[in-house]
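Sample intake sheet
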Amino acid sequence: MCAPTGRAAQRLQEIVGYQGLEASTIHRLLGYKGGRRDKATAAAAAAGDDAAEGVALEGGAERGLGGSGGADDVAADVDEELDLGSACTHNKHRPLPYDCVLLDEASMMDLPLAAALLNAIE
């Protein structure tokens, strides 16, 4: 069970905690480490290279989509902005080890977080 905010996850835990179930934030469920990895590190991690796990993450500085690049550059920038999963332990290459994921308050998720969660579900 997971929720986008700590307070929502705490409330879930209060409701079902007595049944032996555990609730967490989506970030904790995915093993989010903060920031985004550079492309080489993300590719190595996706390939299962454990050495890539110790590499520092890039800062979360936002970039604008403007510039002199063409449509392909803009599309690549958008894909990179949505690639939150590259900074998570669980992603499309290392899916979550659960048969079922219960998500509370799904409407509170932003697009990168939703994409990361859906990619991590096998």
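Comment: Strands lie at 2-3, 24-25. Residues 6-16 form the longest helix (11 residues).
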